[in-house]
Give the backbone structure.
Amino acid sequence: MIENILANLKIERLNPMQEASIDAWKEGKDLILLSPTGSGKTLAYLLPLVQSLKPGITGVQAIVLVPSRELALQIDQVFKSMNTPFKAVSCYGGRPAMEEHRTIKGVQPSVIIGTPGRMNDHLSKQNFDADTVSILIIDEFDKCLEFGFQEEMATVIGQLPGMQRRFLLSATDAEEIPQFTGLNKTIKLNFLNPEEQLTQRLHLYKVLSPEKDKLETLYKLLCT
């Protein structure tokens, strides 16, 4: 299957990090992958994921949590370009949740990719059956923490009673992984270069909006 996927993506071969990720996932444990931004982490988890998905099963088998709409769209595009028998749907804020619900019902995806807040929205409304979800992937886990999604991620995880495997990906190494992730018997792959981390790390700032409609706050931010 991997050979066909790489051909569809026009990729000749996997890099060592991606190969290590696939091999580690086969051991059946939870996985933490640390690797720099732009190193190919998306394929490092999508390839093991599609190998774990079971054909002919109705229901969502895996959830991918991401910190932004842009990343959700990017992953969704890569997944569709892989041209596997499985389907995916992306969910994020900024558009009606009812529209996404109709898409979920129509497509009947094996994988849902989304931001924590919107994922909680669908779970709380029972827009899909959470009992069938057995795999959780959190992409850019460090960004999710920095953006303050701890509580929302914990709420998502708390609504997935059938979860069996977890895969966390990050571009930075955290001193401690929060307990809400529920990691158990974990393999940690570290492909970070400490020197590059110090020189290339981005600085993130959070701007709090006093109003729910953030356009005015964004306008003032751009003006300054």
Remarks:
- The radius of gyration is 18 Å.
- The chain has ten helices and seven strands.
- The chain has a mean pLDDT of 92.
